[in-house]
Design goal:
Elements: E1 27-31, E2 38-42, E3 55-59, E4 61-63, E5 67-72, E6 78-86, E7 91-97, E8 107-110, E9 115-122, E10 128-134, H1 138-145, E11 171-174, H2 186-194, E12 198-204, E13 227-231, H3 233-244, E14 249-252, H4 254-263, E15 273-277, E16 292-296, H5 303-312, H6 314-326, E17 337-340
Parallel strand pairs: 1-17, 3-12, 3-14, 4-11, 14-16
Antiparallel strand pairs: 1-2, 5-6, 5-8, 6-7, 7-10, 8-9, 9-10, 12-13, 13-15, 16-17
Helix pairs in contact: 5-6
Length: 341
């Protein structure tokens, strides 16, 4: 299976640069797993596809303002870092630009010394391990100095940090948003519950893999970065009861899906627990837990296009994407949504 099999042509102007004012006003393309048919709706119409007894699984991770701009203390050279993964209390794995100036021992100052960092070592694939020093609470300082780590294809400045955050974000730790959840408003979630649909949270902190293109031609040779996930006992119980009673388990976003499939048993039961997952889902994968997916439109040749192709079939996904391009849907993080069920 080749990476190029998952290419589609996307006009640049269809990449959404700004979120809609009304989260639930985005468009929704429904792809039927039953017959492959396509239907054009709006996201708030999601209620029409949900049934009493279903369970929506959401990722409650919260994006931290992980992009920091500072300068080297000895030369004053500008340095940009992106916090990727907490390795210890105040030690983080970071993406650093420019890397040549960031050697072990180098000290970086942010916000006139409000936060400082020392590069301890160069880790996997050139990422730096940085020890931070500060007075007070790290998260508060980060909120003051950091910027939301928007993907590189978004060039507009985000006016409101909360628009790159789901309304149910709770657990700090992500370097990127679980963007399928951005379409939900609190009011829409209440309507979902009123319909008799359960809502179960999991946590997966989105990391480097989100920013990483597939560079190999043979799909099976691609290596996924590991990300930390948590499944509470109450969520496992709710999901398992849903399946036992014949309801459908619908993942909100590929991160929720990857969490469920990582923690799922071959029998289809979901285990409570936490750990690191580098699960890579592409055509040929047999799904254990989920029955449907709410997702956004993903980059050509990306692992996420491969994931949705595993669920709905590559031909169906490519046809749906061609239709979305033709109908001028908005793509990627701030774009429109897709329901596969």
């Amino acid at each position: 299976m080749k990476t190029s099999d998952f290419y589609y042509d996307l006009p640049k102007e269809l990449i959404a640069q700004d979120p809609l004012e009304d989260r639930s006003a985005s468009r929704l393309l429904h792809l039927s797993l039953k017959d492959g048919s396509l239907e054009h709706r709006h996201f708030r119409d999601i209620l029409d596809y949900l049934r009493e007894g279903d369970c929506l699984v959401i990722n409650d991770t919260r994006v931290i303002p992980a992009r920091l701009y500072g300068h080297k203390e000895d030369t004053g050279a500008a340095i940009e870092i992106l916090l990727l993964k907490r390795l210890g209390k105040d030690v983080w794995e970071c993406l650093v630009k420019p890397g040549k100036k960031a050697r072990p021992g180098a000290k970086i100052s942010f916000g006139d010394g409000l936060l400082t960092g020392e590069i301890l070592e160069i880790g996997e694939e050139g990422n730096r391990h940085i020890q931070f020093h500060y007075e007070g609470i790290f998260e508060e300082i980060l909120d003051q100095l950091g910027e939301m780590p928007l993907p590189p294809y978004i060039t507009h400045k985000l006016q409101d940090k909360n628009r790159y955050q789901t309304v149910y974000a709770r657990e700090d730790g992500s370097a990127a948003a679980p963007t399928a959840g951005l379409h939900f408003t609190k009011e829409l979630l209440e309507e979902v519950k009123a319909k008799g649909v359960a809502i179960a949270p999991v946590t997966l902190h989105v990391g480097l893999g989100t920013f990483r293109p597939v560079k190999v031609e043979d799909v099976e040779n691609h290596h996924m970065h590991s990300e930390f996930y948590m499944v509470e006992e109450s969520t496992a119980k709710l999901v398992n009861e849903t399946k036992k009673k014949g309801g459908r388990v619908i993942a909100v976003g590929t991160t929720s899906l990857r969490t469920l499939e990582s923690a799922g048993e071959e029998s289809g039961l979901l285990r409570a627990g936490s750990g690191w997952t580098d699960i890579f889902i592409y055509p040929g994968y047999r799904f254990k837990v989920i029955d449907g997916l709410i997702t956004n439109f993903h980059l050509p040749e990306s692992t996420l296009v491969m994931l949705v192709s595993a669920l709905a079939g590559k031909e169906n996904i490519m046809r749906a994407y061609r239709e979305a391009v033709k109908e001028r849907y908005r793509f990627f993080s701030f774009g429109d949504a897709m329901l596969i069920i």
